[in-house]
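Page header: ASSEMBLY MODEL / two components / 674 residues total.
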Amino acid sequence: MAEKQMGSATFVLSTTPTILGWGNIGGKKEGEGPLGALFDHISNDSYFGETTWEKAESSMQRQALSVALDKAGQPASNLCALFGGDLMNQCIATSYAARSLNVPLFGVYGACSTMAESLALAAMTLDGGFGDFSAAVASSHFCTAERQYRTPLEYGGQRTPTAQWTATAAGAVVLAKDGPGPYVTHVTAGKVVDRGIKDANNMGAAMAPAAYDTISTHLSDTGRSPDFYDLIVTGDLGDLGARLLRELFARDNVELPRYNDCGLMLYDRKRQDVHCGGSGCGCSASVLTALLLNSVQRGELHHLLFCATGALHSPTALGQGESIPGICHAVAISDTP
Amino acid sequence: MAEKQMGSATFVLSTTPTILGWGNIGGKKEGEGPLGALFDHISNDSYFGETTWEKAESSMQRQALSVALDKAGQPASNLCALFGGDLMNQCIATSYAARSLNVPLFGVYGACSTMAESLALAAMTLDGGFGDFSAAVASSHFCTAERQYRTPLEYGGQRTPTAQWTATAAGAVVLAKDGPGPYVTHVTAGKVVDRGIKDANNMGAAMAPAAYDTISTHLSDTGRSPDFYDLIVTGDLGDLGARLLRELFARDNVELPRYNDCGLMLYDRKRQDVHCGGSGCGCSASVLTALLLNSVQRGELHHLLFCATGALHSPTALGQGESIPGICHAVAISDTP
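Prediction written out in full:
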């Protein structure tokens, strides 16, 4: 087995790249949520100054990345690579956002797991010795996602109780080979897990088995117990998916003493009509960059396991009778190298 | 600058990972082309034994990967990571193909540049010390691409002279940390380049400037001249795009003495009605795995620069007045480490 490979799917980042800067932007609803005051920017205009929602989402990625670069004190030209993605068909938020950057782009697709996938690859690129700085970005927009995956907003479709609310948000991180932390120490890459869920309005149930697979693989590969982490956070399982994840671990007699889900952290479910919670690439991307990385930097969290989850279906696949495959990528982040 | 970073966008793979096995599958039209006899499998059934074209494309990826693993003499369980993608919305060919594999999956999106992007990341992962074996896979299917990007086949739309034909093909490679070659020596990661082309039936023109940018960056970063390579091959610029690429280099007084395009190699344009040539992720993926890697292995090509090109638009973006951004990732492959 290679020197940095641990167990079946975990990579050790022996040089522990630093997350040097991070930025984000959110929409009106995200601004009204419990993390609203922590965002770098909140826009009450769902078009973010553009003429279409699709262009708005691209602009959100540019703005989040710009803040991350500013905080890192680095120009875009110093990036050896940008990893990014989004939920839109042909990942156009990222492609059009990168158009003005003149930076090598590796587009990724991991559905709502994109922030963890991008962060993982950006960190592995630095750990592999390929550059001094890299970046990761991900976004989602409620209006672009609804009309693409479900029904046009004008249709006014009724939402089911298990539905989640796609976050209008983008988050970006800039990584450096060396720096003061937070440090990326391990990546556990996700495998595709499909337990036969076919309801596109119940993505928590579709993704929970993937989160269970990746987190239990991570714990097994590293020999760590859930106690090691001050917080294990999933991407966006929402209320139902998070309860299913606890149940799956309970079958192994494993408790998750300090566990939360980004989909439950971004909104106040009592006050805000989001049903099972938040979702979308921008959900975990913005919770990571508005709250979690700041907590690690302040020493409030020493060890964080960031596990973004994605549902890898398409409307076409479901129309053809397919079930929803899930994936979850986990990135271990610490305040010490 | 980091030890393995060269110039602005080129990575040196100092351990020169080996491409240990490769496989492919094509459709009827690809079987009738000049490379037909070189494919591992040709299916005259456009459904490849499945009930829908989308499921067919997923099956094609599984079969190409299976052949590559067999030739490499490795079980899937030895792979530290699989990088893969396709043109379908939400990259479902790859996600559903990986469902049965139990292998860590990093989904990528680079439009028709996907084979080079996946191969680049798979090689960088091994060079970074993260595993002993990795894999890359990409596919396209004429029927899934037409109905998604253009019009349903039943519509019988007239094709314009600059149109290309999306290949029904998949290609896969299995890489190893050590082995007898062909060796991956350099990666030049593509930047997004957009010169304002808005015609979705003229992708050669949209992508040629990106190919020019990446190839000239590669030559500048490495200090090599085009003469160094026995073949510089672009992904799928087609006839018009390939001529534009030569023109762009001619402005710099640079000739490309040994240059070809996968879109011109997969079909016989005199006999087969493909207008400007082939396109789609499967075009460069199958030309690489049916012809080029065998030529390197036999010593007929000592140095190959594989430059897959992608058009990063979407029908929605074009409908909103956007132009087509292009990208090109280049991978240098040699018969010596």
